[in-house]
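Open question from group meeting: does this chain pack into something compact, or does most of it stay loose? Before anyone orders reagents, we agreed to write out a predicted structure and look at it together. Recording both the input and the output here so the notebook holds the full record.
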Amino acid sequence: MNELNELKNPDKINENISKNDDNKVTKNLDDLDDLKKLENLNSLNSKYKVYKTSKYLTKKKVEEIIQKDYDEIIMPQSIYNLMDEKNKSSMEKLRLCGVIIKTTDNVGRPKKITKYDKDRIKELLVDGKSVRKTAEIMNMKKTTVWENIKDSMDEIKIEKFRKLIYEYKELLIIQDRYGSYVESLFLELDVYINNKDMENALEILNKIIIYAKSEDNSVK
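Structure tokens returned:
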């Protein structure tokens, strides 16, 4: 009966949960020796912040990193060596403020690829392959594939659209149904695509699809 009353009063459930949590917190606090332990506990519960860089850090940038409470910095070994030589005081300040400094060879932008590889990636995506599958075929990381084609996604989408149009055109030609009516639709469609008017382009494509699926040439 109590459970039914609780289901009818969700606010009561939340209130009970809140009270139980408060009791647990109070008990845990009683077990702490001093305020320092509480500070350490809060520190562990906070989000661990990592700053990645491939550039030399100025003193101003170091101060900014410290003020924003970053826990860790990751930089290339070459930058670490340069910082340790040219800006040793900042490196020491970071360490004194509890910032962990790590080095890696994988910091920075994903590698550039050749034009041939880029064209091949676009070709695979236009053919309907996902970024993950394309990365597998090209033996690359997904991030490398994406970073090298993300600015071309509109172009790739239009090419996929053109490929679909070409397939319908081929179908109608094979069926010997590529007459003046459907030809005018394809010409109109091409104009919309060139103007990147995809809304009207899709409307015309829908007419072509209806015509292609019809049993005779009278559907208009």
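Observations to bring back to the group:
The mean pLDDT is 76.
The two ends are 67 Å apart (CA to CA).
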